[in-house]
Amino acid sequence: MREEYDFSNGTKNPYAAKLKKQITINLDVDTITYFKNQAAHSGIPYQTLINLYLKDCAENKKELKISWN
Q: Of 29, 28, 22, 15, which is closest to residue 51 (Cα–Cα)?
């Protein structure tokens, strides 16, 4: 290993702005099964699909409509 490295020509990490935070969330088994099936068809991991769906909701400011009938 070198004693010193020159990073003057380095570039910023393009993914640094997209860092994720790990959380714990409880989801219904049916919901997880749905996203796992979607993952099997798309080849995208189910957790990524859940994140993409929630991100779309947040970006489009979708309002949750609940009816207690």
A: 22
Where do we find the tokens 């997880």?
A: 32
Per residue in 21-43, pLDDT (tens digit) is 899 999 999 999 999 999 999 99
Neighbours of 49 (CB within 10 A): 16
> What contacts 22, CB < 8 A, 6 or more positions away?
none
Angle at alpha carbon of residue 27, lines to 21 and 32, rounded to 5°? 100
CA distance 39 to 49: 7
Are 35 and 46 in contact by the 8 Å Cβ rule? The answer is: yes
Q: With left for phi above 0 and alpha for psi between -120 and 50, is residue 7 left, alpha or beta? A: alpha
Q: Is the pLDDT of residue 50 over 90?
A: yes
